[in-house]
Design brief:
By secondary structure, the protein is α+β, with helices and mostly antiparallel strands. It is 17% helix and 27% strand. It contains 18 helices and 50 strands. An eight-stranded parallel beta sheet has the order 14-13-12-7-2-1-16-15. A hairpin with a 4-residue loop joins strand 44 and strand 45.
Length: 942
């Protein structure tokens, strides 16, 4: 990191692969009985890949050699639209029938946090405009009836996330009949319609006798109780029919109450039962409370309860049956327990297929940039796909920030995290910005403050070229095709395409146009509208650019060229894509599959023809901030014999210097001889079971991350790999043995080196997480013997014990160490050690501490990375000598540090290191509390 404070802090330096999990440790509880029965006998089988065998005269192939999966949805072009902000087709429904008072109806077109007037009729009237972008699927933000206004939030439910009636379209947007008309029209044009759905929460209707929007109370401090008063852990009953009966007055840490006027407000009626909610207080989006806490008072559903699973499943099956909805985007997926998805996903998908929806598709919002975490929802949790937040981060770094092209090489190499028997990375929707974090146009403007409009448009186009030509399903956020920008996320990124009256929108500087938000912006001649249409048309004409194998080819050292190829397994014609994120032309020699072959330019400003060298290198020159695409003149030559394949020793997928790991998965890697187009199927076997596919990879290096979290530690495994070439030849590796690793325990608190007195809370987490875990704790005083502390805790996902240090009457300065222990299936596990010091710390406190980072502008500072900005000053809490600041931030990815006494002369970053690397916050939007200890110099956000 540079020693120049301006250079160091004006642009975030932490890369994608250093991002922390925003939601804490992911959990895996006991699977449903059917799943357990399956894995005990054999590992999951891959869905049938089809019988075609490229290049094989017989048209068949050995049953063990599979082709890389392409699910029905790997080539969609999504248009993501907020109906209230698109087009006002019917002014009569603007107030939703609730009258003229904005604090009742929620309608005020002059305020960005209220309904502005758009509706479903507006979408229908402008469907030609949407389709003209090459759109194949319209994705609507939640459109169910909302609580029009929540006075505590001083805003309205225009966004759709405060649902009261899951069976009715919000009257501000139209009627159920008008939705059906929109879907029917889309279907007649060969387009699909996707619904944004919510299972995590409803509108804020439930209050607490103890106070509204109260702070979170953990399960360790106040366990759930049955109606009879007996303590129980809900995770012991997830996915089971015998969930204990609950009582609103005795079962929860807070007593839920309903206003008499709202006791029957929600639809379906089961949603009015307060015992079907967690009732634990507001979340801070970290650890246990990220699953159990209310989102700023929104009623958090008890998704562990079978009645909630069934109720939500029934609700969304109805929209499939009665309206023909083609798929769901699922809100706040990472804040719902795993077992809910393991039941909900397969049931809804099966029902959709029964209704003739063979291409029905669901993808979840998992706001995180770590693939080891986001991929758990498609592997462990049986969902089809998640929104590709890691891609958004990587695309911004490349196209907007011109960071090292090798970062994209690293990024795409981690796609194997998503590969399993029935899904892979090709299904993921990719995007550049959204309604929560902000727009790609605003990111480009913020990252390049001195750039002129031409450069900003070029960077915007480069980002879209990367999205359309790389793997995944591209998503256009409405308005991006008109160069919309805005100063941030959330309400600042929700401008209307029709003429706006919102003052904050009217001063936005749009890209590629002189237009403002004071007029309609449905300009099909806008350069970005034209570019997106062109990209969609090109990928439609050349399907390999949408769902062909994505093979890394070349990456510059620093800003410059990143290149990859796309190849359809059947057609076997290679496309080479090269993108340049530098501001000068760059020439690169790019490896290909084919030597001495002509390649023809399909896209971009470059030589019309180029020929590969004897060693298969294609030399291309790419103009600045742009892309080129070449197509081979012929197909990849057929292999003459099967390639040799060797399996590396399987090992737990541990964290590395560039990426977090997952102790519940085994990394299995194969080395394949040769350089042609190959596909490698990985197989696993448990004792007494048969060989089963655990995924097929069509991109070198070949590997999978096999999920073994449901198996007991020590379970014996065998692995092998089967390579398939493009002539139908196969070869099988030798078998490698492995065993399921023991869970990894990690002490989360107290902080290392902190000063303690009175009660000390010790907390640990386990990876992988299971409801059956029981964690004990031990203490060591001044280097003495380890002795137990309290009783073992089986209340997951956070395991805690409170140690009464005062009762030990230890002298100040005594060092006390803690560790966690666990026995699981006969395997003993011990965590690392945390050591603290007894006594009142006599640490001189600074005059001020600033949360300084690229979030300062959102805090009200004149710019980002402002150590002297008083709006970002923390306050010292004398009760615990901790500096604290609670701020409201839009959803997004932020980097920050602690700056002392208003300057960069003394600052602390990751792990409390002076001049250390920036900390990363992946935030869902809303309040976040920062804490800083001057005794340890550690700053945290949660």
């Amino acid at each position: 990191m540079s020693s120049n404070p301006v250079q160091r802090f004006t642009r975030p330096r932490t890369t994608l692969n250093h991002a922390r999990r925003a939601s804490g440790i992911a959990r895996t509880a006991a699977a449903a009985a059917a799943v357990l029965a399956l894995v005990s006998a054999a590992l999951p089988a891959q869905a049938a890949p089809g019988s075609r065998d490229p290049g094989s005269p017989s048209g068949s192939q050995p049953s063990s050699a599979l082709q890389s999966l392409r699910a029905p949805v790997t080539d969609e072009n999504f248009y993501f639209v907020m109906a209230d902000r698109f087009s006002n087709g019917d002014a009569a429904n603007d107030d939703g029938g609730l009258g003229p008072d904005p604090m009742v109806s929620g309608f005020d077109p002059t305020r960005k946090g209220f309904y502005n007037g758009g509706d479903l009729n507006g979408l229908l009237e402008k469907i030609d405009y949407i389709q003209g972008l090459g759109t194949t699927s319209i994705w609507l933000t939640p459109s169910f009836k909302n609580k029009a206004v929540q006075p505590e939030d001083k805003s309205a439910g225009y966004h759709g996330y405060w649902v009261t009636d899951f069976t009715q379209i919000d009257p501000h947007l139209g009627t159920n009949a008008e939705l059906k008309e929109l879907i029917d029209e889309a279907h007649s044009r060969g387009m699909k319609v996707y619904f944004d759905i919510i299972t995590n929460h409803t509108a804020d209707v439930i209050g607490y006798e103890e106070g509204a929007r109260a702070g979170y109370v953990s399960k360790d401090k106040a366990p759930y109780r049955t109606a009879a008063g007996a303590e129980f852990d809900d995770r012991d009953y997830e996915g089971k029919a015998d969930f204990p009966r609950l009582d609103a007055k005795t079962s929860f840490p807070y007593t839920p109450v309903l206003d008499p006027a709202e006791q029957n407000l929600k639809v379906p009626a089961w949603l009015n039962d307060p015992t079907l909610y967690h009732n634990r207080g507001d979340t801070t989006f970290a650890g246990e409370n990220s699953y159990y806490g209310d989102f700023f008072g929104l009623d958090d559903l008890f998704t562990e309860h079978p009645a909630v699973v069934k109720g939500m499943t029934d609700v969304y099956q109805t929209w499939i049956r009665d309206f023909g909805v083609d798929g769901f985007r699922i809100d706040t997926m990472k804040h719902v327990n795993d077992e809910f998805w393991q039941q909900f996903g397969p049931k809804v998908l099966s029902y959709a297929k029964q209704q003739g929806k063979d291409e029905f598709f669901m993808f979840g919002e998992v706001f995180d940039t770590s693939k080891s975490f986001t991929s758990q929802f498609t592997t462990r949790n049986k969902m089809q796909a998640v929104l590709d937040f890691p891609f958004q981060d990587a695309a911004r770094n490349f196209a907007s920030r011109s960071q090292d092209a090798r970062q994209l090489e690293t990024f795409f190499s981690l796609d194997d995290w998503y590969t399993d028997a029935d899904s892979n990375v090709y299904q993921l929707p990719t995007f550049l910005g959204n309604h929560d974090m902000g727009r790609i146009g605003s990111f480009i403007s913020a990252d390049n403050p001195g750039a002129d409009d031409a450069e900003r448009v070029s960077r915007d186009e480069l980002a879209h070229e990367l999205m359309y030509f790389s793997r995944g399903n591209p998503v256009i956020y409405y308005g991006d095709e008109q160069g919309f920008t805005g100063p941030g996320g959330d309400q600042d990124a929700r401008q209307t395409l029709f003429a706006s009256k919102v003052p904050e929108y009217l001063d936005d500087d749009l890209l590629g146009t002189d237009a403002t938000h004071a007029t309609d912006n449905f300009n099909t001649a806008h350069p970005l509208y034209g570019k997106i249409s062109e990209l969609a048309a090109l990928t439609k004409d050349h399907p390999a650019l949408r769902n062909g194998a994505h093979q890394h080819r070349y990456a510059s050292d620093g800003p410059g060229v990143y290149a990859f190829s796309r190849t359809d397994a059947k057609d076997q014609r290679e496309y080479v894509v090269a993108l340049n994120n530098s501001e000068q032309p760059r020439t690169a020699s790019i490896p290909t599959y084919i030597a001495k072959r002509n390649y023809t330019l399909l896209y971009g400003d470059a030589a019309a023809e180029s020929k590969t060298s004897a060693d298969g290198k294609l030399t291309v020159t790419v103009p600045p901030l742009s892309a080129v695409v070449y197509q081979s003149s012929g197909r990849i030559p057929h292999s003459k014999r099967a390639p040799g394949v060797t399996l590396q020793a399987p090992a737990p997928a541990a964290a590395t210097a560039t990426a977090p790991g997952d102790n519940g998965r085994m990394q299995v890697t194969a080395d394949v001889d040769g350089s042609s187009f190959y596909q490698v199927t990985f197989q696993a076997q448990t004792a007494g079971g048969k060989w089963e596919s655990i995924g097929t990879d069509d991109t070198a290096p070949y590997r999978v991350f096999h999920d073994v979290a449901s198996l007991n530690p020590g379970t014996a495994l065998k692995y092998r790999a089967v390579a398939l070439d493009n002539s139908g030849h196969t070869s099988v590796s030798r078998t490698r043995a492995a065993s399921v690793p023991a869970p990894a325990l990690t002490i989360q608190q107290p902080k290392e080196g902190s000063t303690v007195q009175g009660n000390v809370e010790v907390m640990a987490t386990a990876d992988p997480e299971k409801a059956s875990h029981e964690v004990g704790f031990e203490r060591r005083i001044a280097g003495g013997e380890w002795t137990p502390v309290g009783v073992a805790d089986d209340s997951s996902p956070d395991y805690t014990v409170v140690d009464d240090i005062a009762a030990l009457q230890l002298p100040d300065g005594t060092k006390v160490s803690y560790r966690a222990t666990m026995s699981s299936s006969g395997v003993s596990v011990v965590s690392g050690v945390r050591t603290v010091v007894v006594g009142i710390a006599a640490v001189p406190q600074p005059q001020s501490v600033t949360v300084a980072g690229d979030l300062n502008d959102e805090m009200g500072c004149p710019g980002d990375w402002q150590p002297a900005c008083t709006s970002a000053f923390m306050a010292l809490d004398p009760t615990d000598s901790i500096w604290k600041l609670t701020a409201h931030l839009p959803a997004g990815r932020y980097e920050f540090k602690a700056a002392i006494n208003g300057s960069w002369d003394e600052n602390y970053g990751q792990g409390g290191a002076q001049n250390g690397t920036n900390l990363v916050l992946n935030h869902d939007g809303g309040q976040v509390t920062f804490r800083y200890s001057h005794s340890t110099h550690v700053i945290t956000a949660g």
